[in-house]
Amino acid sequence: MPSAEYEDSFVKIAGLIGGEEYLKVARGLLNTDDATDEEIASATGLRINIIRKVLYDMFGKALITGIRVKDEKKGWFVYRWRAKKDQVDSFIDNQKKKILERLQIRLEYEESSEFYHCGNKDCPRAKFDSAVELFFKCTNCKGPLNMVDNGRVKEALRYKIEQLTADISSRKQ
Q1: Phi, psi dihedrals of residue 153, rounded to the nearest 5°
Q2: Which of 97, 79, 5 lies closest to 39 in space, CA to CA?
Q3: How far apart are CA 130 and CA 132, in angstroms?
Q4: Which of 5, 28, 112, 160 has the most C-beta neighbours closer than 10 Å?
Q5: Stretch (H or E) spanning 146
């Protein structure tokens, strides 16, 4: 079995999505063009229901393609699956764009709100409106709510947004 650092990018992405089962299915797909779920199950030793769950998930993420063909021996239709290795880069780019969007939304939330907290790590922060309604008392521990400086959080979010934006821009070129 290849070392993870030398693994095909298709296999690496599969592993990141779903772990060991996805790795095995991805390797099975790369080793056999147009494999059926039964052939992949036989090659990997995984149960057929797990193989199908993984295949449908990867199909939904556009990382594989499936064609329906008639099995001449059995007389019914089966799917033959193939890795779409050319889609790995666009999958990665789409994931980065989704993460960037979530980070930007979170930054807007952090910048547009004033937060209060009691200092107890197990208690949630409260926005100003909620803190006023609670008479600046924590709902969990009843401790006093004090204003929180979220400058470090905003700084970290901006830094990650810059990194992702630069990475996405450099991949377009």
Answers
A1: -65, -45
A2: 79
A3: 5
A4: 28
A5: strand 146-148
**Token match 């197990």: residue?**
122
pLDDT tens sequence for the chain (173 residues): 444 455 688 888 898 888 899 999 998 888 877 888 888 998 889 999 999 999 999 999 889 998 888 878 878 888 889 988 888 888 888 899 999 999 999 999 999 999 999 999 999 999 999 999 999 999 999 999 999 999 999 999 999 999 999 988 887 65
Give pairs for 139-144: CB < 8 Å, separation 24+.
143/118, 143/119, 144/118
Taking the C-alpha atoms of residue 21 and residue 1, their distance in angstroms, rounded to an integer, is: 14
Amino acid at 7: E
At the top level of CATH, which class does the domain 4-83 belong to?
mainly alpha
Per the CB < 8 A criterion, the answer to whether 51 and 41 are in contact is yes
pTM for the complete prediction?
A: 0.67
